[in-house]
UniProtKB/TrEMBL annotation:
GO cellular component, as recorded: cytoplasm
GO molecular function: nicotinate-nucleotide diphosphorylase (carboxylating) activity
Encoding gene, per UniProt annotation: nadC
Reaction catalysed by this enzyme: nicotinate beta-D-ribonucleotide + CO2 + diphosphate = quinolinate + 5-phospho-alpha-D-ribose 1-diphosphate + 2 H(+)
Residue ranges constituting the Quinolinate phosphoribosyl transferase N-terminal domain according to the UniProt record: 26-111
Organism: Candidatus Mediterraneibacter stercorigallinarum
Reported function: Involved in the catabolism of quinolinic acid (QA).
Subunit structure: Hexamer formed by 3 homodimers.
Protein's name in the database: Probable nicotinate-nucleotide pyrophosphorylase [carboxylating]
Record lineage: Bacteria, Bacillati, Bacillota, Clostridia, Lachnospirales
Amino acid sequence: MNQITMTLQADHLILEALKEDISSEDVSTNAVMKEAVRGQVDLICKEDGVIAGLDVFQRVFQLLDGETEAEFYCKDGDEVKKGQLMGRVMGDIRILLSGERVALNYLQRMSGIATYTRSVAKLLEGTGTKLLDTRKTTPNMRIFEKYAVRVGGGYNHRYNLSDGVLLKDNHIGAAGGVARAVRMAKEYAPFVRKIEIEVENLDMVREAVEAGADIIMLDNMSPEEMREAARIIDGRAQTECSGNVTKENIAGLAEIGVDYISSGALTHSAPILDISMKNLHAV
């Protein structure tokens, strides 16, 4: 993440995470460290994976003390190995102790998402189909989790509800049908916004095409239905496949020829990457 993004979009979230962990003081640290002592600690990877979130990790300590320094021996997007020394953090030992858990929480979560995304994205290599995330993110973690998806080789769907038009089943129900929902969106949304609509059967596909939707999301359809849907659409709209996408079935879905495959699992089901801070000592 660049400094502007960090300052405007991430700093207040990181501070809230720190306030959650330190409501008044760090009793354990203050008990054993009566005064400032400069020290350093190693950042070690405990399993193979893809690293993401080093700037966020470092920022946790800098928000506690601007004089904290970090040096890294890898960068976001690098594949790291079990036992690898990824960097060191130097500063007031009290800061290193108090910021450790929050910093690792961000780094482990983001790296886990990047690792899982990389493993799924590799299954789409050479297909022309792009892997998308969704809004199924942890509350107040979206900026971090969607960044991690990009690091892992995926692409971001809309960031939030203000970012684009996506008419789902309940929007269609509220509007009174596919054609009416698309027409209302065209009348309301700025002309620079593409209009995407979710469909669940071939009749809805036909209606969406005729209504002039820009993107048609094929939701929870069988492979046979999606092939027929692609034939009906015939390039008149971009296509997205969604619903129950897994590592086991994604390659077969790409063979259908859709433009995009979206997967909530990238953010809601990726396990963390095990990372630790070890060998803290005074310098």
